[in-house]
Amino acid sequence: MHVSERLRLDSKRNISLKLNILESWLEVNKIPDQIDENGQVMRDSEGEVKIEWFPKSIYQFSKWDGSQNSYGGLTLLTKQWGKFKSLGRSTLDLYPDLKVEIQMVIDSLLKIESIQYISTNKYNKIKELEDKLRLEMAKKEITQTRYLNLLNENIELNDALKREKIAHQNNVIMLTEKLSIIEERAAELTKALTNIRSIKSL
Hints:
Number of strands: 0
Helix content: 55-70%
Number of helices: 6
Distance between the termini: 70 Å
Oligomer: single chain
Number of domains: 2
Strand content: under 5%
Order of helices and strands: HHHHHH
Shape: flat
C-alpha cells in the first residue's frame, strides 16, 4: 500500500474513533464526569461536579488528542477506545460529510452539557424538558443524516464490496429503528411539556 494511502486510512480511522467516542456520550445523554488520578469525581470551587472536556468546535475536534481531558477520564477513554491523536488543519476538509456530522454531534453535546448543568443546579423543570426535546430533535436530524449518508454509500458500492454492502444495510435497519425510538422520546417530552405548562397556568 502506498504511504499516502496508508496515511489517509489512518486519518480516517482516527476521525471515526473520536467521533464514536462523542456519539457514545450522545447515545446515553450524558457527558462523563471529570475523574482525578485517584479515581475520584472532580468538583469545582462551589462543589459542583465538573463535566469532562469535549471539543466544542471543528477546530477543537481536530486538535483533540486526550491531553485536554482529566487524568482519570483519559485513562478510561484509552482503555475503552484506544489511543487517538490530533488531526492536521485541513484533514477534515477531505471528508465533508463526516465534518457535517461531527458538527451536529458537537451541537447536541453542547445541549447535553446545558441539561447536565441545569439538572445539577436544579433549574426549573420546563426549561430542562424543552432542552431535552430540542436534543431529541437534533439527534433525529443526526440519525437522518447518517441514514442518508449510508444510503448514498450503499448506492455507490459495487459487486466487489458485497460484504461491506450487507454491513451497510444492517446499519440502515438499525438507524431506522433508532429513529423510531427518538421520535417516540420526542413525543413523550412534548406531552410532558404540555402537561407541565397546563399545570403551571392553573
